[in-house]
Amino acid sequence: MRKELGKLNGLRGRFRATVKCFGWKKRFRQHEDRTVMLSDIYDENGTLVADHLWLTIGKQLASLKLEEYWMIEFSARVAPYAKGYFGSRDGVFKPPRIDYNLSYANRFVVLWRPLDRDEAWRQFHQQLDANPQALRERSQAAGVTVEEQRLAEAWEGVLALAAQHEEARLSLLPPEVAQRIRDDRTKREKHLAEEKALAERAKAAGVRVRIQRRREAEEAEKQRVALRQQRREEREKQRRPRDAA
Questions:
Q1: What's the Cα-to-Cα distance from 163 to each of 16, 17, 149, 169, 170, rounded to whole Å?
Q2: pTM score, two decimals?
Q3: CA 49 – CA 17 distance, rounded (Å)
Q4: How far apart (Å, rounded) are the C-alpha atoms in residues 18 and 101?
Q5: Rounded CA gap, 167 and 46, in Å?
Q6: Which one is the CATH code of 3-112: 2.60.290, 1.20.120, 2.40.50, 2.60.40?
Q7: Where in the chain is the domain with CATH 2.40.50?
Q8: In this predicted structure, what is the pLDDT of residue 32?
């Protein structure tokens, strides 16, 4: 049950959500309506009111031509609905219960959409080709070919633009949620850097990565055992004068 959404029962407000996926809903006489599943729905105060919910795609939503991972904002009214099993089959125990959904949604606005890296890649190549003389001078200064310099600069530009685009998405989320995503990204980048360094050490040692990881784990365990032994001996030395007294 969406308890946070139930607190707003009967009220109309603005909500933000991320497009997760699309589906179909059966109607009368085998007709089907296209639907969209929204995830991480926040209200105007930045409170997470639902982890997901479904909306029927009407004319307004269809005109936006939504795609997955887009962030949208819209107005809707919180309303209750009954969910569960309403049939008469034996052995199916799923009694109906009340939950809450968003109805009469309108005034949709696209807040953010993922970066089209292919289009960004083409734009950076066009910018670099607009001044070939400067590109040639930078490639000579770096000691590489013009094509290598073009690829390196275009890739750096795309990565910088992607980082700015991601920060724009995080600015639309509540501060604590955005900070948690940044922390997770930092941990992931740190893990990738450690794995890359481990692969380089394994290559230098001429062994596989798993063997190098096992060797380093054994060496770290030996160091921990030696440190515990050293601390134990220090405590014994401190205890001997007290026992003699």
A1: 22, 21, 21, 10, 11
A2: 0.74
A3: 10
A4: 16
A5: 17
A6: 2.40.50
A7: 3-112
A8: 84
